[in-house]
Amino acid sequence: MSDSASGSQLADNAAQTQLYVPSKKIYARATHGLFTNWRWALVWFTQIIFYGLPWLTWNDRQAVLLHLTERKFYIFGWVFWPQDVFFLSVLLIISAYSLFFFTAIAGRLWCGYACPQTVYTEIFLWIERKIEGDHNKQMKLDRAPMSGRKFAIKAAKYAAWGVVALWTGFTLVAYCSPLDELLAEAAGFRFGPWEWFWMLFYAGFTYLMAGVMREQVCKYMCPYARFQSVMLDSDTLVVTYDEARGEPRAPHRKGAKAAGKGDCIDCGICVQVCPTGVDIRKGLQYECIGCAVCIDACNQVMDKIGAPRGLVRFSTENALKKGWTRNEILAHVRRPRTLVYGAVLMAICVAFVWGLATRMPLQVNVIRDRTSLGRKVENGLIENIYQLRIMNMTENPRAFVLAVKGLDGMRIDGEERIELDAVETRSVTLRVLAPANAGKTGANEIFFEVSPGDEPALQLREKTTFFFPLEHTR
Fold first, then answer.
1. 8 A C-beta contact, residue 124 and residue 161
2. What angle do CA 69, 72, 78 make, to 5 degrees?
3. Considering only CA atoms, which of 262, 466, 266, 247 is closest in space to residue 372?
């Protein structure tokens, strides 16, 4: 074999074994229609909530504040403490089951309409179109050599992206640090080190993922794209191309379709509008995020050539094979998988709401003083010392009544009423006395009862032990 042939073969082998496919920038074409409008509605809805919540006030404080320094989460009228991590766990379970439930029904709805990656990419693309122009002008600008005009346009776009990213990072930090303090610090750029870190970290990742990487995140980084297939079945609604109606493809104008040809005119607009560059005519692919902008684009083409809409549409694998009507498709939405997911999701949601509704407004921890297990004091009484940590979990000052039960004649020696400010935690030391003949030698089970003075029915009962020393009855 000649050296040139050997070199050619090595080059071919190298091309076949390269690790990465070269990335090609996608210039997504703008479109309009039902699903595009839904996407933008979700963009507005999610971002009004995200950017707006820190500015709302409730009870003279920030309505939603995850105050990490104070270890308190304020969410409108609720105050959550580290001990309430159970509710966060249940909320995460609800989110997971919601993802399973809606994916089983209609595929990647989350990815196409509410995922932060999708939402911020859409915002950054809108900025890009406003500054650089439509997809054709963007391609022309990128191919042009660097000039003063190109530099100014690119600089304006990147600066606009940077402003959005920084404001996003600032808003995120405002959920964890009081907004009024942040605004005061922002006047002189006097943020704390952790505030600087998280603001720049989140801003940097927003800029990188939504502005630079875009669809690469969905295609190569997001794990959901990989395991979504286990949540789909033949009755899941996904974006589909009606091959039986569309093939064979052939260009034609309104009223001029050749005999034996399909409705697809092979214009490629479904690929041009796709944010991940998917050709839906090749079937469902893991890169498809289910945004359905290709449906809007294809429907516009069908309108122009006088063909029925729905060549690309939301349908199911079984519906395409068996020619089901819309009612038949919807009937198969109710199937064992979705019924089980829905039932479990409903049960967890009901339990979550019930837990919030019946959540106690106080918490008590009782610790017996182990340095003094129990000793005989005046009048032949036995004394035990306890440390009570009482948490007022409401935003109103409250008085709490203390009582101790479990042994005949036992009592608290001292103040039996304690007043706490709003969301205050206080530790109190209590001296409990009991007659020497009220219990057996060693540990005896007793209970501390703590109840709000204005709501005696809301009583918290904590178990502990009362210790009688050896030979305590003598």
1. yes
2. 155
3. 466
Q: Tell me the C-alpha distance between 290 and 111, whole Å.
A: 7
Phi (first) and psi of residue 381, to 5 degrees = -85, 155
Q: How confident is the model at residue 5 (pLDDT cuts 50, 70, 90)?
A: low
Instruction: Write the single-letter amino acid at 134.
Output: D
Q: Fill in the amino acid letter for 360.
A: M
Predicted confidence band of residue 422 (pLDDT cuts 50, 70, 90): confident
Provide the 10 A C-beta neighbour count for residue 264: 26
Residue 293 burial (10 A CB sphere; 0-12, 13-18, 19+):
buried
Q: How far is CA 69 from the centre of its chain?
A: 22
> Phi/psi at 306 (nearest 5 deg)?
75, 25
- Between helix 148-174 and helix 34-52 the angle, nearest 10°, is 60
CA angle 376, 378, 379 (to 5 degrees): 100
> Which of the 8 DSSP states describes residue 207?
I
Angle value at C-alpha 156, between 29 and 197, nearest 5 degrees: 100
Kindly provide the residue ranges of all beta strands, DSSP E only, lying in 228-329, ordered along the sequence. Answer: 238-241, 312-315
Per-residue pLDDT, 61: 87
Instruction: Give the pair of three-digit tokens for residue 335.
Output: 């199937």
Distance CA(282)–CA(196), nearest Å, equals 47
* Residues 6 or more apart in contact with residue 205 via CB below 8 angstroms: none
423 vs 402: CA distance, rounded Å: 18
Could you tell me the pTM of the whole model? 0.82
d(CA 278, CA 294): 9
CA dihedral 295, 95, 172, 228 (to 10 degrees): -50
Residue with tokens 């509410």: 114
CA 57 – CA 80 distance, rounded (Å): 17
Q: Which of 142-156, 195-209, 383-397 has the lowest mean pLDDT?
A: 383-397
Q: Could you give all domains of the chain from N- to C-terminal order, each with its CATH number? A: 24-359 (no CATH), 362-468 (2.60.40.10)
Q: Mind listing the pLDDT tens digit for each residue in 91-133?
A: 999 998 898 899 999 988 899 999 999 999 999 999 999 999 9
Closest to 453 (Cα-Cα) out of 410, 408, 415, 414: 415
Contacts of 281 (CB under 8 A, 6+ apart): 241, 243, 246, 264, 270
Mean pLDDT of the 144-150 span: 93
